[in-house]
Amino acid sequence: QLLLSKSDGAILTRSSKFDPMKFRELLVMAIIMHDLPFQFVEYAGIRQLFNYVCADIKLVSRNTAKADVLSLYNREKSKLKEILGSVPGRKRILNFSFMPPPHSGVALYEWVKLEKLSKFLKVFYDVTCLFSGTKYPTANLYFPQVFVVEDTLRKAKVDSDSFMKSMATQMMEKFDKYWKEYSLILAIAVILDPRYKIQFVEFCYKRLYGYNSEEMTKVRDMLFSLFDLYFRIYSSSESVSGTSSASNGARSHVDDMVSKECLDVMKEFDNFESEEFTTSAQKTQLQLYLDEPKIDRKTKLNVLDFWKVNQFRYPELSILARDLLSIPISTVASESAFSVGGRVLDQYRSALKPENVEALVCTRDWIFGE
């Protein structure tokens, strides 16, 4: 049997036989296109509608619909990989066509300007990608990147090219509005990167403000003050417990041998010795780290792993490093995650697995994205 259908004014014939696979494919397309929950296929009204259209239809469950979405996602992903793999190079994507005079192309000196402009803007592109990415960069990356931006703008402001000079001047006004004063905390964060340490901050401030600048003094004072605070907080409990255990051990041996007055004097001596030790250790722990040679700057280093490995060597300093390096330098990653989640996860779809969310978002973009 054949059915007649009208499409764009033409009369077409199609088989009246129901294709269950085509039905499931169209059902999955509808779920993806309209952000429908997987539970949609189990709605009583929808099932009645399907049974009315075809009494022999085999109804699918939400798990089957979920599996079909993942299957479609994998097929479209394979197609995309095949298409991208068939493109030999980026230049093949562009099509060049001859344009008659008076427009005869870009002059050589204009290409030189474009190349210069491209290198200038690449600095800002790289910093934006780093700060606005979804990998949550550690705080030690803030200071070097912001310094490179400011240094690039300062050089461009004195460029012989009037266009570059004008553009850099306007950009410098925006930079000064938001980033003119470097964050002291984030400046200390780069000091806690063993590839840079305090020498890098001194190098940067020397170029920006000259020798023995007030800004460098603030960073140094803040560094030692912050470490002093952490040392007092995190070493006090250990010192008290150590002193207590030592006193208890001593008391078990000498309680019967010395008077109470003598023990009181010994306790005062223990406290005095502990304070002196605290003061000396407080100075040497941070200074020991700063005095050690830097690690090669080109070394690929996970700075959090470095402090985890050295936590017993620098107990209080490692805690300070952990707290400072974990400060987010941008909220873009978290805001982006919540924004995407709000479009996919709603009151009807609030318990999707990560792989199902990925399949829904990517497949919709590949098939229905404009």
Automatic annotation (TrEMBL):
Which part of the chain is the HAT C-terminal dimerisation domain? Answer: 286-367
Q: Which GO terms describe its molecular function?
A: DNA binding; protein dimerization activity
Q: Name one Pfam family in it.
A: Dimer_Tnp_hAT
Residue ranges constituting the hAT-like transposase RNase-H fold domain according to the UniProt record: 132-230
Instruction: Report the PANTHER family cross-referenced here.
Output: BED FINGER-RELATED, OS03G0311250 PROTEIN
Q: What is this protein called?
A: PREDICTED: zinc finger
The organism of origin for this protein = Prunus dulcis
Q: What is the lineage of its organism?
A: Eukaryota, Viridiplantae, Streptophyta, Embryophyta, Tracheophyta
